[in-house]
């Protein structure tokens, strides 16, 4: 029964945490018995079971309970198969969504070597606009996961494609994550490539795209500031913040006005 399998998936994370805490007694129980179940349920015929499996996997990754070898040899291959060009549409949409969500939890090497090539392919998926929409909405997170070099070499060309996509929702998603993408690039790329691209979004024929671009204008401009002098920094949750000055901290009079938070598109994307 699918409900039984779904309930089983929901119990996997707490069981895994218990086994982790009791590792001397159960050194290999999770890897031998539970992890294969999680991987198998990612391809279950029932979508509720698959969803429960995906949620369990993300919790396990967030808690750092999955071994690097299992990630590279079991999890990533399954996701690459599910997101292949000839894969079922529903499976592909789910796979690209889980790839984007887990990117921030994996090592940069794993993301760049195993998942980034497929992500770039999915950005150009001509069959399913839902796949491209997920890629656009999470583009900033992927850039942050792989760093500046891979972003400028592989991702910026794909970002240009998505920013000129025929579906306005794609262009809107790009406008919303523009600050996160810009923050990952060099000042030269920011000035010579991203600035003209942003102008095209702020002049878009669709008012929803223009509105999203105007809302991202301030955050995008802030990425040109010198962090050491402006005090700008990106928090772990993807928000751009301003550090209070020493005088404000001591006086505590203007601290609240300096704690301005500008939401990154990657956290606002839907």
TrEMBL record:
Magnesium as a keyword of this entry, yes or no, is no
Q: Which Pfam families has this protein been placed in?
A: HEAT (PF02985)
Record keywords, A-Z? Repeat
**HEAT repeats span which residues?**
115-154
Q: Which residues does the annotated region (Disordered) include? A: 246-270
Q: Mind listing the GO molecular function terms for this protein? A: protein phosphatase regulator activity
* Keyword Lipid biosynthesis set for record: no
Q: Which GO terms describe its cellular component?
A: cytoplasm
InterPro entries tied to this protein:
ARM-like, ARM-type_fold, HEAT, HEAT_type_2, PP2A_Regulatory_Subunit_A
Q: What is this protein called?
A: PP4R1 phosphatase
């Amino acid at each position: 029964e699918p409900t039984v399998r779904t309930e089983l998936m929901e119990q996997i994370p707490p069981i895994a945490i218990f086994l982790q805490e009791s590792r001397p007694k159960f050194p290999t129980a999770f890897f031998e018995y539970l992890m294969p179940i999680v991987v198998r349920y990612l391809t279950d015929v029932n979508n509720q079971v698959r969803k429960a499996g995906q949620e369990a996997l993300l919790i396990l990754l967030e808690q750092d309970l999955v071994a690097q070898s299992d990630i590279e040899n079991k999890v990533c291959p399954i996701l690459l198969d599910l997101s292949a060009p000839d894969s079922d549409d529903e499976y592909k949409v789910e796979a690209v969504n889980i790839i984007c969500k887990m990117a921030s939890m994996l090592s940069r090497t794993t993301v760049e070597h195993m998942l980034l090539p497929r992500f770039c392919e999915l950005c150009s998926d001509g069959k399913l606009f839902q796949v491209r929409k997920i890629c656009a909405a999470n583009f900033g997170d992927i850039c942050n996961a792989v760093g500046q070099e891979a972003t400028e070499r592989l991702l910026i060309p794909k970002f240009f494609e998505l920013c000129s996509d025929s579906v306005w929702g794609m262009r809107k998603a790009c406008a919303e994550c523009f600050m996160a993408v810009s923050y990952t690039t060099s000042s030269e790329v920011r000035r010579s490539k991203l600035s003209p691209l942003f102008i095209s979004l702020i002049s878009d024929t669709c008012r929803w795209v223009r509105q999203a671009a105007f809302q991202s204008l301030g955050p995008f401009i802030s990425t040109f500031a010198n962090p050491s002098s402006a005090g700008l920094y990106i928090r772990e949750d993807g928000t751009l913040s301003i550090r209070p000055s020493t005088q404000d901290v001591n006086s505590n009079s203007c601290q609240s006005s300096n704690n301005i938070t500008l939401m990154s598109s990657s956290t606002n994307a839907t």
